[in-house]
Target: Helix-turn-helix transcriptional regulator
Amino acid sequence: MSDLFQDLSSRARDLNAALTVFDKTDTLLTTNEKQRTLYPFIDFSRTVTFRDIVWECVKHKKFRLDAIYSNPDRWISYAEDARRFHRFWQSFTLHSDGRVIQITYEKLSDTDGWWYQMRRDVTGSVQDGFRCDFDSLISLNSNGALTPPNRPAFVVRLLDALPYPAALLTPRCQVIDGNDAFISIMSRGDGPAVVGGRLCIPDAPTEQAELAKRAAGFFRRRVRTPITLRVSRLDQPTPYFATLSEPPARNAGNDGPMNGILLLTLVDPDVLPTVSPRTVAELLQITGSEAEIALALCSGRSVDEIAEDRGVERRTVYNQVSSILGKTGLRNQAGIVRQVTMLCWHFGSRL
Model:
């Protein structure tokens, strides 16, 4: 296996990445100097497991996401599950010192369950890396990285002009491009992720299947209205809202049409700009009470939760939702969420 270790070390050196190789019991087999430099508080001279390394990072407050510290064992199990279900898996982690670390796991072929992890600091070039070189830590088990589709120059301007997290996808969910707000959500690691260059929901197989189905069938539908999906979040009661739609520009001038490319927008209800029920009521031509219902749906509340909060029967809330749909011409609750979200971004207060 010396040739394998040498090949991995060479790749890590070329990428200025930290390297660790583990056996099937998650016990460390080898590491490189970059890994020791990044994590000087870990004694790599003794027998160390994957869990040992993560726990030491928790103890030394290396992660920015507070939820990790409230239930670190769950986060470790999440990483272990992702590795079991994917031969090749890639994500971003936001560290407490502001660094963005790109992490790659891969199972090694022709070994007894061995796998490696590479960690690379991409803080200074995360946007360029996302757009131009996302699969730079290519799989050892393939011939090379996926070739991203050609992208018109106007796409960059389009995404950067949007105030909310947005990305462009192929119908197979391969990420072509994403703005800074989208990358920020990916770095949280609490819901959607990019695995092998594709958007997925590793911790929710049912939602993952629905996302893949909706994206693959989007352009086969007779009416291509936007689709909004709920994406569960680890340790958070409110979901993300993911909307698939066509890009607003159907033609990029001399660069050609944007056929077969999806615009994905992601919304975190917890950080939406606030807008008053009165504003929503006036803009959508609905009553004040209906506007409050619409805003509650946009915050991730279910009909049952809204009914409980307001002290009314769930049928009352359903009737108000039906009234909103009738007055606005929207098709379903997802449409209400999508519409009110846009109102929040364009008319809400960001203070």
